[in-house]
Every structure is written in structure tokens, then in C-alpha cells.
Amino acid sequence: MSVEYGYLAYSPHIDPVFTISLPQTIKFGMGVSREAGYEAKRLGIKKALLVVGPRLSGSRLAEDIRSSLEAEGIGVSVLSKVKIEPEDEEILEAYKEIKGKDIDGFIALGGGSTIDTAKILNLLHTYPAPLEDYINRPIGRGLQPPGPLKPLIAIPTTAGTGSESTSVAILDIKRLRVKSGISNPYMRPTVALIDPLTTVTMPPMITASSGLDVLNHAIESLTSRPYTSKPSIKSPAERPVYSGATPLGDIFGEHAIIWVNKYLRRAYANPNDLEARYYMMLAASIAGIGFGHVGVHIPHAMAYPIAGMVRNYYPPDYEFGYPIAPHGISTAIPAGYALKHLAPYNIPKFSKAVELLTGESVYEAKEVAESLFEYYMGLLEDLGVPTCLRELGFGKEDLEALVDGTLKQQRLLAQSPKQVSKKDLEKIFSEALG
What we know:
The chain is of the alpha/beta class. The chain has 16 helices and eight strands. Strands 1-8-5-4-2-3 form a six-stranded parallel beta sheet, with helices on both faces. It has a two-stranded antiparallel sheet with strand order 6-7. Helix 8 (about 245-270) runs antiparallel to helix 9 (about 275-295) and helix 8 runs parallel beside helix 12. It starts with about 25 loop residues before the first strand and ends with a helix.
């Protein structure tokens, strides 16, 4: 299925190396979440912190995970102070609760927000420092921890972020009303237990949002600038986590696109469609492995200020009492507009994406761009997701702040197949505002 895109390049002026760092163990299958206790014991964990959201904390699944740990003689304390789309201030409040506790391992049970929260708590608990020291530049200092963190077992309950396979954690910077991230190789979970059965209780809009995130991961990683276009580095320690597109990233991205296209609508329509749940979970995981070393670009960079600035959007199934632009939705709305703009700058890759999504073979830049845009708009409509930012409460008065917030995401913008300017972003956002 994968197409050869010409990665063969070598010069003293480029970095001809890419790195894939995987969790120590990835287990996939129906019911594999029950092996949490076995894996924790194998890792030598004796006092675990179970990080789980407030809604899931009282569930049968959470109780089963806790029982699995305790059956192996592992002491378990629970932290349920987890916010969907986590914010820096809430994470610091949660850290205060565990700062003095004797914890030698973390268990994250939940979606990407929960797993990312656990990653950051593990980092702060292992190497205490101001949070901004670890947040990516230019918002933070982008410092790296001096060594490995404590063991972390990630048990995802959504088929979306792929956070169980990545070395990145995303959070809102509340005072700036923008998202940023923390990325370093040590953040990657030690074990990922990927159980499709944990997703059958996801309501429709959460299924839609998380599934759209998978699609965006796959397409953005597939169409990122190639790793061989990156400048040379002085030391391997300087090599960024996101390398740019690679041959292996293409394989993961292409298969994830196929599965999302085939199964997302089915999972949205019928939560008990186990075949759809199985392949959506698998797509999320392999897309996570792919973008976890390749990176994502413009749609995700645009999504961060969208999520940070949302004021009055209350999507169905996200009844938390506060406005929210869920991550998958905040990436998917700008994606159609951004990818239409970018398609002419990497026609082979975007043409491949169109072929996988529609079965059409189109090679002219205009046709590729229009086909991809039409697919996205049709998919959003099928899933009941807004197709423009105006439906999230944004207006033309927000244009400047949205653009400025996107320009802060240089780690992501660097992966774009085209070096985008402020003018480019103004054009894309103007279209996306509707």
C-alpha cells in the first residue's frame, strides 16, 4: 500500500537520521486492560498512582483496574482531578496533592487528557521543577529531564489521541489562552494496554471527535516535510522528537487513513459495533506511533488557539459545565481549509490521501485540493460536527488572536510541507471562520 516517495538523501548539510522510540511494551486486544496488575508487578511498581477522570473513577472498569493492581500486592492511591483538555493551573493543583507521596509508578486510565495529565505529573514528581521549564519553546523553556521517569502504564479509553504511544503531552496555558506541549523521549509510557472494549461506552460526539483526531494525525504525518529536509545537527541530543515524514510513518499513516475512512462512521452510528471499535482503536494506536516520531503540522497548530480561546461552545456529550472545543473537533474544522491550501506543495502525498479516502486518482493540484476539502466537509456533516469556526462562536474579530496563537506553535509549523507565513494563516483562518 505504501508508495516510495524518494527519501534517499545524504549531505553534510542535512540530518539523515530518524528515530522511533516505542513504549517498552504495547499490548493490543479485547480485555487486555485486565493485565494492568501483571505489568505493574513486572515493572517493580509497589505504590501506584491511578490517574483517572472523575466520571470514570467510579466505573466498573476503574474498579477492575484497581483490583488487578491490588491482587498483585500493589498499593493504589487514586487521583481523579483530571480536566478534559487539561490546563496548567489544574495540573499544578493536582501535583500539589501528590507532591509528598511515595509513588513509584503511574497508571493512566482514560482518554488523551488523562494520559497527558499522568505524563506531566510523572515528570514533575520525578524531577520537580517549575512547569514552564518543561513546556516547549517559545512559550516555555523546553528543558529536558536528566533521565528516565517512573514507569507509566497507559490504558486508553478513547480511540483518538494515540497518547499511549507518544512522547508528547498537551496542555492549555490558561493565562495565554493557548495550548502548548511538553515533549521529550522520557515522556512515552512504559507500557500501553490497548483494549477496544474500553471504548464501547464512548458517546457519539466523543467517538466522532476522537476519530477525527486520528484522521488528522494520519494525514498530517503523511504530508509533513520529509525528515531528510531537516538541517544538520551538532549532536544527537539536539535531534527533535518530531523528525518529519519517514517511510515507516507513511506506512502507519496510510493504514490509519484506510481504517478511519471505513470504520469511523460505523462506530459513531453504533457504539456496540465491535469490529468498528477494534479497528478505530488500532488506527489510533498506529497513527500515534506514526505522528509520535514524524510530527503534525498546520491543522494541529491552528487547533491550539481555537481550543484556548473558545468562549461559548458546548458540544453534545461534553457536559462539563464549561465551554470546550474538543481536540479532535478543533483540529478537524481547520483541517479541510488548511490541507486545501497545502496540497499543491506535496501533490504525491496529498494525492495518496485522496485516493485512500475516496478511491479517486487525481494528480492535478487543484483537483487534489478540492477533493480533500470536499471529503472533510462531508465527513464533518455526517458526524454532526461544525464545518466552520463561526459555529463555535468565533468571528472576524478573533482573526488576529487566532493567527498569533498559531504562530506560537513553531514546533508544529516546522513540519509543514510549505513554510507558512502570517499572511497564509490569515487566509486559511478567514476561510475557516465562514
